[in-house]
Amino acid sequence: MNEAAPPAAKAAHPLSGVVHLVRPVGPRARDLASLRTAIAELPDRSLFYHCVHQRLRHPSGDEPPPDDLAAWAATVLQDREAAERLAFAAQTRNGGASELRAALLEVLDALVSRSRHDVEVPDEAALVLLSAESVPIATGREPSSGADLLEDLANSHVEVWFYHLVEQPWFDSGRTPLLEWLRASGEERLAALLAEFADGHLALLAARERVLRRWRMSTLPRRLADAGRSPDVSRREAGRDAVTRLVRRVRRASGPGS
User: How far apart are CA 153 and CA 142, in angstroms?
Assistant: First the structure.
């Protein structure tokens, strides 16, 4: 009688970081009209750099940083309306290059048609348009479960989060391979939680902390129940481990020489 074959091991999902090679593209924009002309022809990776990548360049704070186009309109052109309308387009219609380009052109067409938005700045104040080529870098982390994934993400730099949860879906029509892997593994709740990281309403570090905090809170009842079933020796050892980890985190936060 043949023995039943053992169940297949769940495939791991490797995690990658990313670096971006930045280079200039095309002419500079000196007013809204030339910006409109440039937006119509810019490569997708240039739109990504100016309207998505700034979140990775400035990951700290309570709110996400403004996109480059809105920031230029506000600080250089001193055009508050243009800045607000460009920022709104980048925040609400930024699911990919096609959607974003159409939204920006719609805003700029309306603004350029009104003569009070025809301010032109000297060349030294022009907006230098850039593009970013992505170079994924393997981290060596290959989680095979939701719990492993959260542990690995908690110990990964924010660019790992950005690459998997922001950049990949932006270039792949909303597809997020990491979340698809989680759902295929029966981790719907964790997939939904991680999807919130990319919603754009928080700076990246704040978004990461919120996800980790909510996951810890959601698993607290189970962890307490598991601890209640553990013998006293195991609970004491778990307590010592928790204190040790806390001390290490405090020392890292304090920095050398503190």
Answer: 11
pLDDT at 234 over 60: no
Give the pLDDT band of residue 38 (cuts 50, 70, 90): very high
The identity of residue 17, as a single letter, is G
pLDDT (tens digit, 9 = 90+) per residue, 80-119? 999 999 999 999 999 999 999 999 999 999 999 987 778 8
**Residue 80, CB-side half-sphere exposure with 13 Å CA sphere:** 0
| Cα–Cα distance for residue pair 257/49, rounded to 1 Å | 38
User: pTM for the whole thing?
Assistant: 0.81
- Locate the domains of the chain by residue range: 16-132, 140-229
Neighbours of 5 (CB within 10 A): 6
Give one DSSP letter per residue of 199-211, joined into a string: SSSS-HHHHHHHH
Q: Please tell me the distance from the alpha carbon of residue 11 to that of residue 236, in angstroms, as a whole number.
A: 34
Bridge partners (DSSP) listed for residue 21: 133
Report H helices in 52-167. Answer: 54-57, 68-75, 80-92, 97-112, 146-154, 158-162
Rounded average pLDDT over 58-76 = 95
Q: Which two tokens stand for residue 186?
A: 């029966």
Phi, psi of 17 (to 5 degrees): -95, -170
Q: What are the helix (H) ranges across the chain?
A: 32-41, 44-51, 54-57, 68-75, 80-92, 97-112, 146-154, 158-162, 168-171, 177-184, 188-195, 204-229, 232-254
